[in-house]
Amino acid sequence: MLYFVLIIGFIIRLFYAVVLVPQDIVGDAFEYDTIAVNIVQGNGFSMDSCNPTAIRGPVYPYLIATIYKIFGHSYLAVRMFQVLISVLSCFLVYKISKAIFEITENANYTEKIAIASSFLFALYPSFIIYTGMIYTETLFIFLLLFSMFCLIQVFKADKFWLWMILSGISLGFTSLCRTTTILFPIFLIAIIYLYNLFKKDLVFKKVILMKILLVFILSILTIVPWTIRNDVAFKKFIPVMTRVGQNLWGGNYIPYDGYWDVWTNKVSREEFTNTMNTITKGYYGIDADEILLREGIKNIIQNPWGTFLLGLKKMYRFWIFPVGSGFIAEKGLSLLSKIIMIPHIIILIFGGIGMYFGMCKNKLSMLLVAIIFYYTFAHTVFLVVPRYHLPIMPYVLIFAVYGVYKIIKIKSPLPPFIKGA
Which of 194, 261, 298, 320 could be cross-linked to 266 through a Cys-Cys bond (beta carbons 3.0 to 4.6 Å apart)? Predict the structure, then answer.
């Protein structure tokens, strides 16, 4: 059955990548493409072929540069590669689901849950669409899924050293693709500590905390060479990439509703850019980003209540709008943009139910819960665009399937922390 799911996923993605109209190379895609072309031409990691840049993490540009080196400047070759790694992601969804739930469920039901989760991933429209786009999403989703699978094995396996090394290196490369995950191991340590307050499992706490700390150290060591490159090139401490300041300022600029008014075309991007340029006072690049970082922090300090309320709105926007709903609304199809929200919200509801059941008696499920909460919080602090929730949708799909299964099969026990109250 798994082979059937993978074949279906492959055929759908292949059809989309080859037959349907490809994406225009603008915005983020233009930057990835330009950097990759400069790498191939021997100009280094650069936007203008002369000066180094740090506006993007290195993994995706170097990947597509490798593809260009082999196949020429071919967007189709990039899309075909992304078709393959998206199918591998489909397989990893199956493996993660099975690894999580085989502890508490019988083998037959675990297999069904894993197959159904993989099948949902194979058919989920956004995962298909992004295989045809020169964006980091498809690669980032794969790297994060692989990192999470390795991390699960760190928790489960007796001989965990290999998995720990793979998990650390994979998390490092995931952060070099997109920096969002760089502090996830620290967040996970905090979650495990809080979990122990309720469970009082000291052995679990000490052993796992040490493993996660080592994973974090290995991930940082993976990132360090690129950080050194940035220090040499710019004489500044830039762990992976710039635009931290731009995202913090834009995401918390209350007059533009945290960038949302720009995204929904209530405020023109030209006006947004002019405001940003006024603040940066003629500075560009890294210097401008540092100014925006200071301004973003100042805005938060000066208006903590407004920032908090905006954060709640950003959290709502992060989850409630499916990827593509804004684009559909822009085309004048507002009714359709609302209709596609219905299955999305249903998945979120069942995902929440599955998370509840999973946390009742399954330690490993907190790994998936942790990455969902961490990723939500990270983007709520900075900038929210609906597509940013896509990398954690595989885990929501897994919990949604589990939620449906538990509703059908069994009644829920109370969570441990409620029992102990």
Answer: 261
Distance separating alpha carbons of residues 390 and 374, to the nearest angstrom: 14
Per-residue pLDDT of 235-244, as tens digits, reads 999 999 988 9
Q: Return the H-helix or E-strand segment holding 394.
A: helix 393-409
Q: Amino acid identity, residue 40?
A: V
**What token pair was written down for 305?**
């209540």
Full-model pTM = 0.91
Q: Summarize pLDDT for 336-389 with one digit per residue, the tens.
A: 667 778 888 999 999 999 998 888 778 788 899 999 999 999 999 998 888 899
Tokens 């989703």 locate to 141
Q: How far are the Cα atoms of 113, 327, 328, 345 from residue 321, in angstroms, in the given order? A: 26, 11, 12, 9
E runs forming strands in 256-383: none
Name the token pair of 251. Answer: 């995401």
Based on the number of CB atoms within 10 Å of its own CB, is 147 exposed (0-12), middle (13-18) or buried (19 or more)? buried
Burial of 384-412, coded b for 16+ CB within 10 Å and e otherwise, reads bbbbbbbbbbbbbbbbbbbbbbbeeeeee
Alpha carbon distance 35, 318 (integer Å): 29
Judge whether 5 and 98 are in contact, CB under 8 Å.
no
| Res. 324: pLDDT tops 80 | no
Contact predicate 127/387, CB 8 Å: no
Distances in whole angstroms, Cα of residue 222 to Cα of each of 62, 65, 90, 171, 218: 16, 20, 26, 9, 6
Helices (H), strands (E): how many in the chain?
21, 0
- What does the DSSP 8-state code read for residue 23? P
